[in-house]
Amino acid sequence: MTKWLKSLLWPLKQIDAALPRQGLIIDLGCGDGTVAAYLARESRRQVIGLDIHPPRRPGLLNLVFKPQNILQADLKSASGCLLSDCLHHLLPGEQQLLLERLSRQLKTGSACVIKEIDRHDFIRSKLSRFWDWLLYPQDAIHYYSSQELIRIMTKLKFTVVHSRPSPWFPGSVNLFVCTKL
């Protein structure tokens, strides 16, 4: 995928700016490792990408990929974490478990950045659902609305700043910068 197309799909600069510049950042459900690699290149932070099938990317000294079920991730030492187009691939009960785990394990002041699709984004969410169906036909997809995700994260003791950083991309791109209270 070209750098320009990736910049439309993943608001890399905004994700980078929302996470601490130092410390441990955990990319939960890192997929092909694009975002984790970007974060590692942009600062001195230590980045760990967790995924059931992590990528094999050569290396940056401050980047490690590990095979792990993200529902069992230990987040206690993280300064921040990222969920980029990952949450909607989990069943609703698993989504709740993961978000509760974030609330219990992240320290006060830690950042959690969530990039997700808003199910109420009309045609954009329909296009995103179509792409998910093409790319992941075996997955049952479960989107939140932006308001639902904000309400859940607020209830779990996070402040939330929501934005739509990619207005020209035809899919639904929503960024939730959550800070643990």
Overall description:
The protein is built from six helices and seven strands; from the N terminus they run ααβαβββαβααββ. The chain is an alpha/beta fold and 181 residues long. The chain has a single domain, classed as Vaccinia Virus protein VP39 (Rossmann fold). The radius of gyration is 15 Å and the shape is globular. The model has no long low-confidence stretch (mean pLDDT 87).
Short recap of the structure:
This protein is α/β, with parallel strands linked by helices and 181 residues long. The chain is built from 6 helices and 7 strands, in the order ααβαβββαβααββ. The chain has a 7-stranded mixed sheet, with helices on both faces.
Radius of gyration: 15 Å
Q: Give, in order, the helices and strands.
A: HHEHEEEHEHHEE
Outline type: globular
Total count of domains: 1
- CATH fold label: Rossmann fold
- End-to-end separation in angstroms reads 37 Å
> Judging by the overall fold, what is the CATH architecture?
3-Layer(aba) Sandwich
Oligomer: single chain
| CATH C-level category | Alpha Beta
What is the strand tally?
7
**What is the assigned CATH homologous superfamily?**
Vaccinia Virus protein VP39
Structural class computed from helices and strand pairing = alpha/beta
Helix content: 25-40%
What is the helix tally?
6
